[in-house]
Amino acid sequence: MKMLKMAIALALLFAGCGEPTPAPPPAQQVKEPAVAGTPVPGSVATPAAVAETTPEADVQVPQEAPPSEAESARRKREELLSPDAPDGSEAVVAWSGEQRIQTAEFESYVRRLPPPQRREYTSLEKKQEMLRNLIKFNTLAARAVEDGLDKDPDVLLAMKTEMVKKFLQQRFGEGADVVIDDAAVEARYQEQIRRYKKPARVRASHILIAEEAAAGRILKELKKEIAVPGNSTRKVFREFVRKYSEDVATSERGGDLLFFAADGTREAAPALDARVAQAAFAIQAVNQVSNVVTGDAGFHILLVTNRRDEVNQSLDEVRESIREALSRERKDALRNEFMDNLVDFEQWHIESRLLDEVQVETLPDGTQMKARMESIRKEVDPQAPPRAEPK
After folding, report:
1. Can you give the three-state secondary structure of the chain, one letter per residue?
2. What is the pLDDT of residues 327-345, one digit of tens each?
3. Exposed/middle/buried for residue 214 (C-beta within 10 Å: 0-12, 13-18, 19+)
4. What is the distance between the alpha carbons of residues 91 and 196, in angstroms, rounded to a whole number?
5. What are phi and psi of 92, to 5 degrees?
6. d(Cα 356, Cα 387) in Å, to the nearest integer?
7. Are 43 and 11 contacting, i.e. CB atoms less than 8 angstroms apart?
8. What pLDDT is stored for residue 309 in this prediction?
9. Distance between alpha carbon 189 and the CA centroid of its chain, in Å?
10. For 366, which of 317, 344, 355, 389 is 20 to 30 Å away at the CA?
11. Integer Cα distance of 192 and 312 in angstroms
12. What is the rounded CA–CA span in Å between residue 221 and residue 244?
C-alpha cells in the first residue's frame, strides 16, 4: 500500500511540472495502470479510465490465460527432461520428496526388455508410461524393504544369482577383452582348411542292379510310376530301392550315397566309383533320375537329391570370424580355469550328519500320488466306490 501511495505522489509531481515528460515511441509505449482519482500524464481522464474508488483500492492486474493443451504438454516435457533436477552431478528424469530416478536407472530398466519389444517404447508417451511403471516398481521395492524382505533367504539367493551372472559376464562374456593375434588365426585357418576350401558336391541315391537288362526294365517301371500324378519322386524311388537294390549297405537308408565330389571322394565314407560320380554331376536338376549307369559293382540308377557349390574362402575373408571363434574358446577356457581354482575345498569342513537331515521336497512317486488322489476323491464324495485299477 505504501508503494501505491508513492506511485500516486510521483504522478502528481510530474503532472505539475512545466515540461511534461516526453512519451516513449509508440513501439515502446508503456501503459501505466489507472489509479483512482489521479489523472495519467499526457492523457485525458475519462470516466472509463478513472475508477470512482478510494486511493487504497487494490490495483487490478490482468489474469494470465490458462495454458493451452499443447502448452501443458510442452511444460510436462520440460519437467520430465529438466536439467534443473535436484541432483548436482547425475541426470534425473523424475523426482519427488521420496524418490529420485536417474537416467542410468531408467535406461537399465528399459534394457531388461527384449530388443524387439523395446521398439514399442521410443516415443515420449511410451517412455513416460515406462517411467511411471519404474516409479511403481521402486515404491513396491521400498515397501518390501520396510517389511524386511530384503533379508529373506530367497531374495538374497536371487540377488546373489544375478550378481554371479553379471560377474562372470563381465569377466568372461562378450565384453571381456581377450587378444587373439594373427598367428593364431592363421594356424586355425590351416587346421580347418577343408572347411574353407571345398569342391562342388552332389548328393545322390542309387539302385544297384547286377544285370543290365534287369536295370533297364526297373528304370522303365520307375519312370512310369513317377509320372503318375500326385506321386512323389523321392518316395517312389525309396520304394524301388527297398524292392530292387542289391546294395545292402545303402538300401536301409533309401540308397543314399551322401555328398561326393566329381572324382567320387566323400568326407565320411570311402570314395565312389568315378564313373558313377561323373554321371551324377552330369545331372543338372535335383530330383532328376539318370539313365542306367555302368559301374564297377554293376548297373546304377541315380537320383540327385542335393547340390552344393564350390567353397573357396581366403584367409582374409574369414579372418574376423575365426578370431571371434578363438576369442569365445579362449574365454570359455579362462572361465573353466577360474572356476576350477576358485575354491580350495581342503580348507572346508562339511557337516555330513547335519546335511543328511536336510529334507528335500520332491514330487511324490506314482503310488503316493494315487493314494493322495484317492484320499481327495473320498473327501469330495465319501460314498464313491474305490476306482478300479486298469488291467
Report:
1. CHHHHHHHHHHHHHHHCCCCCCCCCHHHCCCCCCECCECCCCCCCCCCCCCCCCCCCCCCCCCCCCCCHHHHHHHHHHHHCCCCCCCCCCCEEEECCCCEEEHHHHHHHHHCCCHHHHHHHCCHHHHHHHHHHHHHHHHHHHHHHHCCHHHCHHHHHHHHHHHHHHHHHHHHCCCCCCCCCHHHHHHHHHHCHHHHEECCEEEEEEEEECCHHHHHHHHHHHHHHHCCCCCCHHHHHHHHHHHHCCCHHHHCCCCEEEEECCCCCCCCCCCCCHHHHHHHHHCCCCCCECCCEECCCCEEEEEEEEEECCEECCHHHHHHHHHHHHHHHHHHHHHHHHHHCCCCHHHCCCCHHHHHCCCCCCCCCHHHHHHHHHHHHHHHCCCCCCCCCCC
2. 999 999 999 999 999 988 8
3. middle
4. 51
5. -120, 120
6. 38
7. no
8. 94
9. 32
10. 355
11. 13
12. 11
Grid cell locating 2: 505504501
Query: Quick check: 205 pLDDT over 70?
Result: yes
Q: Are 300 and 247 in contact (CB under 8 A)?
A: no
Q: How far apart are CA 180 and CA 171, in angstroms?
A: 16
The three three-digit cell numbers of residue 215, written as one number:
536295370
Give CB contacts under 8 A, 24+ apart, made by 186-195. Answer: 186/315, 188/322, 188/325, 188/326, 189/315, 189/318, 189/319, 189/322, 194/267
Pairing of strands 100-102, 92-95: antiparallel
Q: Are 209 and 219 in contact (CB under 8 A)?
A: no
State the pLDDT at residue 5: 43
Listing from the earlier edge strand, what are the strands of the sheet with 293-294? 256-260, 201-209, 299-308, 293-294
